[in-house]
Amino acid sequence: MPAPADLPSQRQKIEACLDRAADLPPSQKEIACRRLARFPPEDCVCHGDFHPGNILLTARGPMIIDWSAATRGYALADVARTCVLFESAPVPPGTSLRIRILIKLTRRLVYAAYLKQYLELRPAALDELESWRVLQRMVASAWIAQRQAAMARVAVKTPP
């Protein structure tokens, strides 16, 4: 879907995330920025945080919610971000082994169905998707490091 001009740029958002990542070595940042520069710009609506938790099943059919991370960018980059979320989303602490295994298997099935359906609707080269996935893993690592640092700062400021 063509993106409205007022949506933030996906490329700029990724660049900013990489730039703010204090724990990402400069060599990794450089590799990520070079990868990002190789990919074509596109003007599609990208969700930015698409995963099963952001889908509501309604009487009118599935509805995608939580568009707060939406950007104007390259659709395959958004798909790669979803792939990384499926591959690396943590299971809540304290979850029993049986439920962890069930979650892992279910996640694999849903992920495979998602990717198959997407690639049927909008064919793409798997090597290009993999390149985006590598970049999105770097961005996810940078984002997690930023989040942990922010939470540590809050913990230090919070009185006992």
Characterization of this structure:
With 160 residues, the chain is mainly alpha-helical. The protein has a domain at 10-82 and 125-157: Aminoglycoside phosphotransferase (APH), C-terminal lobe (Aminoglycoside 3'-phosphotransferase, Chain: A, domain 2, Alpha-Beta Complex). It is built from five helices and four strands. The strands form two sheets. The protein has a two-stranded antiparallel ribbon. Strand 2 (55-58) and strand 3 form a beta hairpin. Helix 3 packs antiparallel against helix 4.
What are the secondary-structure elements, in order, as H or E?
A: HHEEEEHHH
Structural class category:
mainly alpha
Beta percentage is 5-15%
Instruction: Please report the number of helical segments.
Output: 5
CA-based shape: globular
CATH topology of the domain at 10-82 and 125-157: Aminoglycoside 3'-phosphotransferase, Chain: A, domain 2
Average pLDDT: 88
Enumerate the strands of the largest sheet in spatial order, edge to edge or round the barrel: 1-4
Number of strands: 4
Q: Percentage of helical residues?
A: 55-70%
Distance between the termini: 49 Å
- By CATH reckoning, the class of the domain at 10-82 and 125-157 would read Alpha Beta
Rounded radius of gyration (Å): 17 Å
Tell me about the largest β-sheet. Answer: 2 strands, antiparallel
- Please name the fourth-level CATH homologous superfamily of the domain at 10-82 and 125-157: Aminoglycoside phosphotransferase (APH), C-terminal lobe
